[in-house]
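Course assignment 3, question 2. Fill in each field.
Student: A.L.
Task: Predict the tertiary structure for the chain below.
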Amino acid sequence: MKLDHFTIRTPDLEGTRDFFTDVIGLAVGDRPPFPFPGHWLYGDGRAIVHLVGVEPGRSYVPGHGGGDAPGANTGAVDHLAFRGDDHAATLARLANCGRDYSERTVPGRGDRQIFIHGPHGLVVELVFPQ
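Answer field:
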């Protein structure tokens, strides 16, 4: 089993896109012509983050894009993690973006972690092998 993608619903579609492209380093790529606004963001040649634009106050049914059928909250996510390969370039990109972040090392493994707060309180972890 492998992670295919995750989807984020957002009333700030462009700001959320900019966070994942400018701060995290993903790239906007091809997206099917769905009847609702969104972006597919690519990393390592795959669309791993799907963004769906939603209007504040509208409900959402998971798996049905931007529809307005009744739906419940899809639950809480503590953080999302991406495995990176260039720690120094990522730190430089974060400095250019002016975003606050924290770093730590995984005990006993040596992997370096960077935690960044994004839109809507979302926390993104970037993991770099030792």
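Instructor remarks: The radius of gyration is 16 Å. The CA atoms of residues 48 and 115 lie 19 Å apart.
Grade: pending
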